[in-house]
Write a structure and sequence with these properties.
CATH architecture of one domain: Roll
CATH class of one domain: Alpha Beta
Strand order of the largest sheet: 2-1-3
Largest sheet: 3 strands, antiparallel
Shape: elongated
Helix content: 10-25%
Length: about 100
């Protein structure tokens, strides 16, 4: 670990392009504070004037699911029968159901 990595926190950088609707993760960088992270992200990841918005988030503040949890985390909730429309009477005058 370098001296810089030991002193400055790691930030994850997300950029929204001119043609995009979503912010996309483009990389990481170290910075002394949030404002410096935004400036460095602008300089490093939007050099060709391709971004319209930048988000920087401290890596330590991100909580993510594990790929190993994919099946139980994203599986449909079969035990929640109230979510299924079989228990509801649909009136005859309701179109497109």
């Amino acid at each position: 670990m370098t001296h810089l990595e030991a002193e400055w926190p790691l930030y994850e950088v997300f950029v929204r392009g001119k043609r995009g609707l979503n912010h996309v993760h483009v990389g990481s960088l170290h910075a002394a504070d949030d404002q410096m992270a935004v400036r460095h992200a602008r300089d490093v990841y939007t050099r060709r004037n391709e971004g319209v918005s930048i988000w920087v988030v401290r890596s330590a503040d991100i909580t993510a699911s594990s790929p190993d949890e994919k099946d139980p985390l994203f599986a449909p909730a079969g035990d929640k029968v109230y979510r299924h429309p079989t228990f509801y009477d649909i009136p005859a005058d309701v179109p497109h159901m």
